[in-house]
Amino acid sequence: MKRKTSIPQPLDAALVLGETAHPLDGEDRNFVTALARGLELLRAFGPDDDFLGNAELSRRTGIPRPSVSRLTYTLTSLGYLVYVEEQEKYRIGQGAMLPGQRYLSGAGIREIAQPLMQSLAFATGCTVALAAPDHFDMLYLEVCQPRGALVMRLTPGSRLPMATSAIGRAWLAGLPAPRRAAVLAELERQHGARWPSLRSKLDRAMREHARRGFCVAHAEWDRAVSGAAAPVRLADGSEVLSLNIGGAATRLSPEVLEGNLGPRIRELADTLATRLWQPA
Predict the structure, then answer these.
(1) CA-wise closest residue to 113 among 156, 151, 175, 165
(2) pTM higher than 0.70, yes or no?
């Protein structure tokens, strides 16, 4: 079953990576700085954050504390945040949950992708996950676990580093060349002295993807975990997600990743690309 709905054009790659990467000082008259800052506050809440105060939100986002106070007041008034008086801090409100739930439902991720991902997780004994970019990380949208003991204790909302994980490299490989170049420039600024080594590995991953259709990372972002990943290009490529399969590095050797799991995750990514969100 295909979803027939229009996909808005993606934001500029630099903006996707965060507020600080976008010209916020009046260079773009169409860009609403206050709105961007409010969204950055919501994105500052990680999967393990129950409560955050204005000081912590200011530190995480780089937004001045007086501005944070006004923004949290506004977001609380609209239901996107809830103020907990005993803690003197905020938690995510129901208003912030609705757009994400509608995205997962509208794209067909829960209806179409999840059953196929779960089937592959059971068949391989590995974790299968679908992710989207968020700043310099990949944000898990859906995670399917195999039976038995869990090796990758990750849930929707978990983050993996973009530059060192297979799922991040696959997302980069799936981008059109101009967008990829913009993202790589932001990653270079982010990683500083580590960048030459990271760039070498990313270049190798791009070549691997061009040759095989998937990327691998063996014990890199986490020394105990290895995985393979492939991009999911929705519609005409204007939106790109990433799909990975992974587990214990001791069990998933490079040979297993390249000869077995990589081709299987590529096949599933190709299937999802034809069945998720489609343009009208």
Answers:
(1) 156
(2) yes
